[in-house]
Each structure stands twice: as structure tokens, then as C-alpha cells.
Amino acid sequence: MEMHNRVSMAKRYFVLLWLFTLPFSGRGGARAQDDSSRIRVSVVLVQLSVAVTDRKGNYVSGLRPEDFTIVEDKIPEKIATFEEGNEPTRRLIDAAPSNSRSMMSAPAATPDSTGNAAITNSQTIGSNVFILFDTSNYMYRGFVFAQDAIADFIRSLEGVSKVALYSYSRDLSRVAMLTSDRYQVLRGVRSTVAGDDAALYNSLLMTVKDAAPLTGRKAIVVFSNGPDNASLVPPEDVAELAQSTGTIIYMISTREAETEPVSAAVFERMSKATGGKAYFSKDWRDEKQAFNSIREDLAHLYAISYYPQPNANHGWRAITVKLAGKEMQKYHIRTRDGYRLLQTTQTSGNLLPLGPESASK
Predict the structure, then answer these.
(1) CATH architecture entry for 1-361
(2) How far apart are alpha carbons 127 and 89 in whole angstroms?
(3) Comparing 41-50, 64-73, 223-232, 295-304, which segment has the lowest mean pLDDT?
(4) Alpha carbon distances (Å) from 153 to 166, 170, 204, 290, 350
């Protein structure tokens, strides 16, 4: 049994390594080979997207930085920046504590492998949204209605800096790269066509990887009409990378996917782990309501960041966010519950899990 677990773990990391390095194949050269052994580990700023709701599910607005308490691995943290909805970012701490210098080996303005980066004066207000559209053979029925729902969602987005449209069947297609030009994305929606088997988790992993270097709030909205039947990676790996890069995943799925208990449970767990939500539409018209709910969620998120205090843990770090004061305990908080330190190679920016043996490199 122990040997079987070791083999399974080795296979998982081999697949992850293959997927992470695939888009960067062809970058040769002696210098690149020499630099490939140089590892940069940088935990500059941890960014959280936090939703606060009351018992009825209504969003709670008007909260202040002092209303929140953040603990990482039982270590209290100080809030560095604070933003509500689409309001300007409030800077509370100008720089990382000097005693956390050992955590960093990259310039403060350089995004790190956890999706966390130093806030600069030019930080864009709002969210960056990736839409991942299922164009597999599950989508043949009602394909046009799905396109309409996505197009309406794109038009309705307010306070969102940029939008990207990706589609997937067996392969991922970057239909419209991240852009502020909504018309370009809308044209991309109408150009999509239905096709092959569904490799959702493969495609979602690569989408998370694209979103990882971005600062500020970032979200992936997945529209799926069926289960995954062609991926090489397990959904647990996708969820962990999304958590570690601070990427929210929202899942919109139709009744066809909900009828498969395994897929429905996976969609629920994945979205919850990243601070997002899963929606199961009873019919095609319910899709628009799901998109409207996501739009409202993005507009009411609190963006909170902190510089981690010295922490010897180089693996999974648990994050707990609470509200201060007894009168605040009636509210519900939704956000990611932790992250894993990741390492990047300087030449390709590939993301890999960081183990204790490589923490000092």
C-alpha cells in the first residue's frame, strides 16, 4: 500500500510538471539551461478575496480593516492593503517587515509564485476575469443559448479591469486573451464551436497558470455542461494550485453534469476551496441568473493583503479570516483557507510545489 501511494504521488507530480513545462517548450540555449537550476522563492504579499454575507445571503458592506483579523498557521498577521468592491485600495503598510527578508529573494515589485505581489501605485482597481467555456460534445444541445448567456455576462461586468475567453474540449483554446476590449471578447464568444471530448481539469489547470502572475483579484468562471472524461490531472491538484495562486473559481454547470454525483461533488469542493461558488442550472434560462450572481459577488468582494510574518513552514499554510467583535459573529466569511509555497524557475516562470529540501535555494 505504501509503495502504491508513492507511485501514485510520483505520477501526479510528473503530470503536473509536464503540463507546466509544455507551453514553454522550444526555449533552448545554453544560457537558458544554465539558468534553469536557479530557483526563486518569493512570498512578498498574500492577497485574499473575501466575501462577507449575513444569514440571508445578503452582502455586508462598509466594513473597515480593523473589523478583520487574519491568522496564518496560528500567527497573527497585519493587514497591508484593503479594498472594498471597486473602491480605491487603501495602503496600511508601505513595505514588508524587515524581519521577513529571509522569505524573499526577488524584488518587491515582482509577482511571486503564489500569485502574491507587492502593491504599486499603479495597481488596477477591479478584477481580472477568465471565462472557461465548455465546447465539448456535451454542449451540442443548447450551444447558442450558452453563448448568449456568456455574452450577456461579459456586457454586464462592471468594475472588472480585463476579461479573457478560453474554450475547451479535449484541448484548451485561448479564444481571446486577457483584454479590456469587451468587443474583442464578444467576437470570440460567437466564434466558438462545439467539438471533442471534455478535458476540463487539464484546461482549468492551464487557465489557473495563466492567471497566477496577475496581481489583485482574479477569477475563473467555468461554464460546463458535463463531466470530465479526458483529463490527465486530478481536480484536487487544480484546486490546490488555484488556492496557492489566489485564484477564485466559480463553476456553472447544467443539470446534465449535476446528475453525475462525482462531478457535482468535485465542482462544489473545488469552488469552495478557492473562495468561489458552484451553481447548477435547472434549465438554460437559469444560467443567466448564475452569471448575475457571480457578477454581484465580484462587485462586493473585500480585497485584503498582508506580508507574512516569519514562518518556518514551507508546505501548506492555513489561513483563518474572522471578524472582530461579538456583534460581527453573525456574519459569514467566504475566502480561500490557505496556500502552498510554490517555486518558479527564472527562465520559464513554471510553478512547482516547494518542499523543505529546496526552501533555501
Answers:
(1) 3-Layer(aba) Sandwich (3.40)
(2) 13
(3) 41-50
(4) 15, 25, 20, 10, 32
